Amino acid sequence: MKPSTTATADRIYATGLRNQWHPVVPSRFVAPGAMRKVTALGEQWLLFRRSDGALSMLADRCPHRGAPLSLGKHLGDRVACWYHGVEVGTDGTVTSVPGLPGCNLEGKKLVTSLPVREVGGAVLAWFGDEEHPEPAELTLPEPLTDPAVDAFLCYAEWDVPWRYAVENLLDPMHGAFLHHESHTMSAGDTTAKFRIRETDRGYFFEKTDQRGVNFDWVELCRTGVDWVDLSIPYPPSAGPGGPFGIVGMVCPVDEQRSGVFFWRYRRVEDWQRASWRFLYKTLIEKRHWEVLEQDRVMLEAMPADADQRENLYQHDLGVVRLRRLYRAEAEAQSRRGI
């Protein structure tokens, strides 16, 4: 974002922090030889995949007259704008101006191109600024890179501000109430005390008087991309394997919409993997979507100013810490002219 369009801290806080990686959409949304228009951090983008599978992410704006490139034609290694045929390569360079060959637009990189990576079936992109165009180091969640862990990605889009979706994950106590009727969160005490425990990559928000019974802890991890890790006990009916965990990420689509990514994972080896995958697809996945639906209904029903008219207590320490952290970063980025 150029200095002439410097965002306020409120705008950054509403649409997502810059100078970090964010999840965008599941990889399956963009097939080989296809392209897809997406919105992320309040801006329009074009995901473009070559036939060999290589993925690019471009600003959805032709450098000629500003028409959406997403309405154009996929030409294998470039896209042709539908309006006047201007061709843009996957790195944002204008490769051809058919209406005026040799035009001085040719050979210039005039379209923003974001670094992208794919992990666990999701597209991650680096949203930097003019001072930070090169991506920072990205350390991926261990459950998504460990070959002994098997994970399923669940993706949904919610009509809620992105920070509400993240705050929901930093609020373990809602599991004992909102999800009380679910197959895994009916046990345990409905009262608790919590603490924040610092780590070298973020912090744990955890119950001090209960562990391994319900949604008893969550860790916020900031490793180039923001993600949370949590664990929920599984009953014997879920089959053999290690504890059940969730890695969660949130894409700030715009001020009022979020893309939520949940990888349900379990450490399983040999025959246990086949058992876990079978049980998940035939029985457990449906129950997980029912729990997610409870979260969606509650968060979408909350008013836009819900966080301005609260009365918080000890169980909300994790949320308060998160807000202070994100607000401070938004203010710092605004001062730097992002």
Automatic annotation (TrEMBL):
Its EC number is 1.14.13.-. Transmembrane segments: none annotated. It comes from the Bacteria. PROSITE patterns: RIESKE. InterPro entries: Cholesterol_7-desaturase, Rieske_2Fe-2S, Rieske_2Fe-2S_sf, VanA_C_cat. One of its GO terms (molecular function) is dioxygenase activity. This is Aromatic ring-hydroxylating dioxygenase subunit alpha. It comes from Streptomyces narbonensis. Signal peptide: none annotated. It holds the Pfam family Rieske. The lineage of its organism: Bacteria, Bacillati, Actinomycetota, Actinomycetes, Kitasatosporales. Keywords: 2Fe-2S, Dioxygenase, Iron, Iron-sulfur, Metal-binding, Oxidoreductase. Residues 21-125 form the Rieske domain.
